[in-house]
């Protein structure tokens, strides 16, 4: 099985201590987002876990303790944009995040560092020219530290529409997507980057841009020296190319404050955060009398065929 850590929150940035404790105890409890009293017990034993995929905007807390992951195949989906605080409210300065990206790449290699430039949105400040210029600046500074960049265009989730409108932010038309993609593709080639889209219906193959598998079984196989027998994740959108995984995060627990985030409902966020306990097997909550815990029957998906890679 593959562990996603996590689409729902930034575990490396805010919950690294909690995650280390989960690795030590070799299991984690995860609430069903649609039925919070339904709890799954997920094994984190290395013989069962085929790989870990970390989603983050700031993995700095992990840099000095990566050795705790030595028993696992893993890689990072590292989102690195250049929006100001009106869009990404509580991130470290861009120069700091670029340096963190480089340091992590030096430790684990460029192949395991996937740069995410997403979501792309527009405003009077963030126009097509802005994105073209910033993307090139970032690509130049990340050269040698990554081999792939994944882009996506803004999705209008119901809970974020009002905030986007008030801030003067909008998505891209299909024509704008194609025009910008053509420029980004040219820049990516200049810096030796493979460019892909995340869960986008638009076809950009003529520009040299493919569809991404952000949970990438082939990459985990190369990292782990094996082949993974995975299937497509049926719980994601139809355009998503991800392999099946189990997400161990919790919604309403991320403190980055990004205006485009689908994972936080601001009315509940503070309550969730203050419930945090690094010793609890549940992220930012405790087991309650009404909870029903079920052990997930999981197995490894790998076969030892390193010679295939």
Q: How many beta-strand runs?
A: 13
Taking all residues together, what is the mean pLDDT?
Answer: 93
Oligomer: single chain
- Helicity level, as a percent range? 25-40%
**End-to-end gap:** 20 Å
Structural class: alpha/beta
Task: Count up the helices.
Answer: 8
Shape: globular
The arrangement of helices and strands along the chain is: EHHEEEEHEHEHHEEHEEHEE
User: What's the arrangement of strands in the largest beta sheet?
Assistant: 9-8-7-6-5-4-1-11
What's the alpha carbon Rg, rounded to whole Å? 19 Å
Question: In terms of per-residue confidence, which ranges show pLDDT below 50 for 5 or more consecutive residues?
Answer: 305-309
Largest sheet: 8 strands, parallel
β-strand percent reads 15-25%
Task: Give a verbal description of the structure.
By secondary structure, the chain is an alpha/beta fold. Helices cover 27% and strands 20% of the residues. A hairpin with a 2-residue loop joins β2 (27-32) and β3. The chain is globular and about 55 Å long. The protein starts with a strand and ends in a 6-residue tail after the last strand.
What is the compact description of this entry?
By secondary structure, this protein is of the alpha/beta class. It has helices spanning about 10-15, 15-25, 95-110, 130-140, 160-165, 175-190, 215-225, 265-275; strands spanning about 1-5, 25-30, 35-45, 50-55, 75-80, 115-120, 150-155, 195, 210, 225-230, 245, 290-295, 300-305.
């Amino acid at each position: 099985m593959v562990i996603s850590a996590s689409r729902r929150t930034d575990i490396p940035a805010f919950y690294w201590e909690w995650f280390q404790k989960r690795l030590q105890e070799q299991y984690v409890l995860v609430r069903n987002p649609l039925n919070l009293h339904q709890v799954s017990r997920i094994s984190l034993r290395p013989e069962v876990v085929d790989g870990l995929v970390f989603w983050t905007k700031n993995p700095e807390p992990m840099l000095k303790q990566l050795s705790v992951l030595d028993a696992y195949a893993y890689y990072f989906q590292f989102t690195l944009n250049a929006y100001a605080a009106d869009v990404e409210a509580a991130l470290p300065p861009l120069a700091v995040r670029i340096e963190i990206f480089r340091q992590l790449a030096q430790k684990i290699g460029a192949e395991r560092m996937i740069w995410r430039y997403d979501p792309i949105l527009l405003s009077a400040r963030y126009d097509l020219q802005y994105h073209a210029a910033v993307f090139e600046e970032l690509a130049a500074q990340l050269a040698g530290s990554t081999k792939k960049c994944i882009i996506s265009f803004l999705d209008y989730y119901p809970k974020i529409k009002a905030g986007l409108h008030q801030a003067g932010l909008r998505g891209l038309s299909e024509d704008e997507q194609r025009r910008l993609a053509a420029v980004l593709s040219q820049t990516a080639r200049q810096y030796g980057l493979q460019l892909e889209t995340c869960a986008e219906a638009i076809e950009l193959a003529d520009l040299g841009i493919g569809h991404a598998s952000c949970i990438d079984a082939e990459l985990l196989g190369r990292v782990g020296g094996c082949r993974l027998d995975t299937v497509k994740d049926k719980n994601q959108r139809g355009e998503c190319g991800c392999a099946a995984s189990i997400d161990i995060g919790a919604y309403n627990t991320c403190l980055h404050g990004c205006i485009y985030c689908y994972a936080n409902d601001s009315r509940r966020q503070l309550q969730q955060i203050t419930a945090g306990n690094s010793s609890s097997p549940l992220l930012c909550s405790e087991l309650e009398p009404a909870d029903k815990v079920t052990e997930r029957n999981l197995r490894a998906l790998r076969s030892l065929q390193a010679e295939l890679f």
